[in-house]
């Protein structure tokens, strides 16, 4: 026997070039994670969210910038190219996770309001953005794809802001439902449009004469749905409920596995219990990766495959699977790498004055369509004027889903995809930063308008600490026997009194704040009394101005009585409790008929001021 030809040893053939490639990949990944991590920390510190910093970190170490300054190599650029698979996996993971929100019972509880508003704003956004880019020379299908991306919001950002400001109640519930529904609908629409574009083979208008694209599209979509169902079945078969001992110090479960044989042994091995764990995350990621890989091989819409699998798990299995995908250390690393890769993919050479006009067009078109569309939907489906005022500005932030999709376009649509990427990436960053600022200010305004206001106006609020009326009123801010019939004239007159003693510098800002609050809902509380009020940045402490209008004026009061006493309250923005206490005190004062009659009877500001100060003892 010739042992020279027998391969008794396992040998690994390593090409020296492969070692160089591996070294470049490890270096690129290390630099990417370092830059993205510290960029995220920096941007989080300045209050714009860590995603923006992670993207800019990726730009700093990406092959585009490093090649421009002459320190990049072809191998370094190639190393980043090997990471692109991560984008597809990350996007499919998002689509799968969104399936959790499409539980049939949960969807039914969302109600017509959220679905109606979501539909109106989504349709308006899609139509307006698509029309703008079609007029600017983009193909129909590319314009529709850009329009669909505009629908996507930033649920994570919105939830963080609402938690930060402790926003609760019907507004939180409505807003949360809308942003999640918008992303689910957008992913489905995006998947269909991408499939149409790929079915055409070019990014041109789908053939409408003979509908040649429709047949293959239906087959592909149907196959994707079947693939998604198969993903669900595979997860359900492997991840099954079973009895587990609370404690197993002797390792009896492992001994049982070793003692089983045949099919029972295999069954125990290929079985996971649905509990939050890294084991569960590994199984989900593994089967999801297999599904996505097969989808790519057969040109199927992989986003739909992942979404259908998620819907199946949400409705017919356990939500614990979704919680296993949210294990913090692992998801943070995945987010870090992904958003860093987006920054590293930026083609800095593609930014020019021509692309600037497209960026501006997207920002303007999306801002207008989101605000107008949401306002129209809210006007039809919601009657609360405060919600109608605030909701349109809450859908401006854009982040995760949209960023994933533009990165995906850059890889599958060639030069056209790269052009769309170079336009939408900076636009989305603008919305990520600007949207957070607008949304946070809107939530602060909502909180100032609503939290405790109803109880305070009705005089039902408990005053934990004594509050003296003498601390609020000054004789210089009392105006008696006014002959006015217009709210704006009255408000401007009272607003100016706050500047007489230097309490604050009068500007139209104070008047505008009071008017904005009044437009939401009349501040008339009945009995011929109105309490226009606001929180104002220049105010140092709660202050009031008082006016009497003997002839009365229409304030839209719920009891129909004309207003004869108007007290304007202006408080600092922080702390909010000071404003509510002052509001409750003044409201409680004016609830007493004797106090109202006394105010109307007197025509000397000095005498009235003295009486008001002495009323502290009667409250």
UniProtKB/TrEMBL annotation:
Pfam families reported for this sequence: Na_H_Exchanger (PF00999), PTS_EIIA_2 (PF00359)
Keywords: Membrane, Transmembrane, Transmembrane helix
Topological category with respect to the lipid bilayer: Multi-pass membrane protein
PANTHER family for the chain: CATION_H+ EXCHANGER DOMAIN-CONTAINING PROTEIN, NA(+)/H(+) ANTIPORTER-RELATED
Protein's UniProt name: PTS EIIA type-2 domain-containing protein
Domain PTS EIIA type-2 span(s) in chain numbering: 471-615
GO molecular function: antiporter activity
Gene3D superfamilies, A to Z: 1.20.1530.20, Mannitol-specific EII, Chain A
